[in-house]
Amino acid sequence: MTRTAQGLGYAGLIPFVALSLGMNLHPLTTVAFTTYSAVILSFLGGIHWGVALTRPEWSTPTRIGLCMLPSLLGWLALLLPTQGALIVLMISYLSWWLWDRSQLDQPDYRRLRFHLTAVVVLCHLVWLVQT
């Protein structure tokens, strides 16, 4: 994994952390947090989509369909009240992290995903406790 990919991965945590720290500063902070979370969740499905397009053994209808799941869950979360959205998003991140661990065996990626998922889930927990 390149340093650029790692750096961008960690930089992607900035909105999660900043919006969690400033959750009461503006009425749109909640919308910004849940929307960003849904977009990033969708991105995680895209990683598997990319792998499925490059590995013939992954190009099954079931695998490609599963790649769409994070996008659909993120979209569903945006239709729910705040607490429901936070719960769906948090469970989705944890579930997709477990799926990643069972499917992708690259140690650097696994380590990065663990760090990123831990922070993202912690931010969702902070929001759940405060809302």
TrEMBL record:
Transmembrane residue ranges: 7-25, 31-51, 72-99, 111-129
Domain of life: Bacteria
Alphabetically ordered keywords of this record: Membrane, Transmembrane, Transmembrane helix
Signal peptide: none
The name this protein goes by in its record: DUF3429 domain-containing protein
Species the sequence originates in: Marinobacterium sediminicola
Higher taxonomy: Bacteria, Pseudomonadati, Pseudomonadota, Gammaproteobacteria, Oceanospirillales
